[in-house]
Write a structure and sequence with these properties.
2 domains, rod-shaped, 5 helices
Length: about 160
């Protein structure tokens, strides 16, 4: 099987013209032995565009951030993976601390009429902040934008290793 010198499409052995670009076939070169990787293929072997990989860094919160930080070496993807770890890992830790504070306060006899309402309000606020950040960060990453969450971006950049 021969290949077109101009576009690289496969050409039948008896063809006079390239079926893709229409260039006359004179002496077609054989297929390259080591073709260049596609535009979206990372050096680490991930075959997806950087904006899709950036979006997926946020898909399951800090868990997918850790996965992409380990397997992808592109700076854009590493930044989003590190930011996912910092933002959603931090929210997870805050959620656990608030839960422990209210749980321990109730168990130690610190129950008063406003404890459950306050805990419910804080948990709802944390969930709402997490949902808004999750949607915003996935949207911005898919658009190819390096959106930086204030307070978390500096830590994420040091974690990603500029």
């Amino acid at each position: 099987m021969a290949f077109c010198n101009k576009c690289g499409a496969q050409i039948a052995d008896n063809a006079a013209f390239c079926p893709k670009c229409g260039v006359p076939v004179s002496a077609s070169a054989p297929a390259p032995s080591n073709p260049a990787p596609a535009a979206g293929v990372a050096q680490g072997g991930i075959a997806m565009e950087p904006n899709v990989a950036g979006l997926l860094c946020y898909a399951l919160g800090w868990v997918t951030g850790v996965i992409f930080l380990v397997i992808d070496k592109r700076p854009y993807v590493r930044f989003h993976a590190a930011q996912s770890i910092v933002v959603f890992g931090g929210l997870n830790i805050i959620y656990i601390i608030v839960g422990e504070m209210f749980g321990m306060g109730w168990m130690m006899g610190g129950y008063y009429s406003g404890t459950w309402e306050m805990a419910s309000l804080l948990f709802t606020a944390l969930r709402l902040v997490g949902l808004i950040l999750w949607i915003l960060l996935m949207f911005k990453a898919y658009q190819g934008e390096k959106f930086k969450v204030p307070g978390a971006a500096d830590l994420a950049e040091s974690l990603a290793g500029k």
